[in-house]
Design brief:
Structural class: alpha/beta
Strand content: 15-25%
Radius of gyration: 18 Å
Largest sheet: 6 strands, mixed
Distance between the termini: 29 Å
Length: 205
């Protein structure tokens, strides 16, 4: 069994998995192997890792070969996104109350990315969505690997069709990707980022 865990930088679930793998599961199934991998990713970035791991399994790769692939490639699974408001980041303890109030007043959009420790970091700050979308598209263009072979996954938290199309247009005007696939953001990440959050996921340098 291969357990691809949510980033240890965001969740303690990997610790539970390790305790089970080395304890109860080992006792009950002594002849079986359970490998736990810290992907340092969450959300659709983790989903993309899982899809690639499944593809390799279907191609006949061994468990060890799949683990080796994930360990070597996991930091290439990228996320870049913006929240609609800083209010939910304040509630999650990510920004101060004063910063949230001022940021909301001037329509400040922190552009968030994954760092190498599996946490979200601020890449840049933009005023307004139009500028934020353009900045995100520029960063994806500079970072993406073989865009013509890639689907960019656009995760959104109850965004309008107009907002989704605006982000798609910003990406497609800069990056010749195969397609942009829009999907709803899950409730765990959505609860800490808030409605209106929009995130792009892709394979990068």
């Amino acid at each position: 069994m291969l357990y691809l865990a949510c980033s240890s930088g965001l969740s303690a679930s990997i610790n539970t998995a390790k305790i089970l793998a080395e304890g109860a599961l080992k006792e009950d199934y002594p002849d079986q192997r359970v490998i736990v991998v810290d992907t340092l990713r969450a959300g659709m970035s983790l989903g993309m890792i899982i899809m690639d791991a499944q593809r390799l399994k279907d191609e006949g790769k061994t468990l060890d070969e799949v683990v080796d692939f994930v360990e070597k490639r996991k930091l290439h699974y990228k996320e870049i996104g913006i929240p609609e408001t800083l209010t939910y980041l304040k509630r999650a303890g990510r920004v101060s109350g004063a910063a949230a109030i001022m940021g909301n007043l001037i329509q400040l959009k922190p552009i968030l990315i994954w760092d190498d420790k599996g946490c979200n970091g601020v890449l840049e700050k933009a005023i307004g969505k139009k500028k934020a979308y353009a900045t995100m598209a520029k960063y994806i263009k500079e970072d993406i690997v073989e865009p013509e072979k890639q689907d960019v996954y656009l995760m959104h938290a109850d965004c309008s069709e107009a907002e989704i199309e605006a982000f798609k247009k910003a990406i497609l005007s800069e990056v010749p990707v195969r397609s942009v696939i829009a999907l709803p953001l899950g409730p765990i990440i959505g609860a800490s980022s808030g409605p209106g959050t929009i995130i792009g996921n892709y394979i990068g340098k």
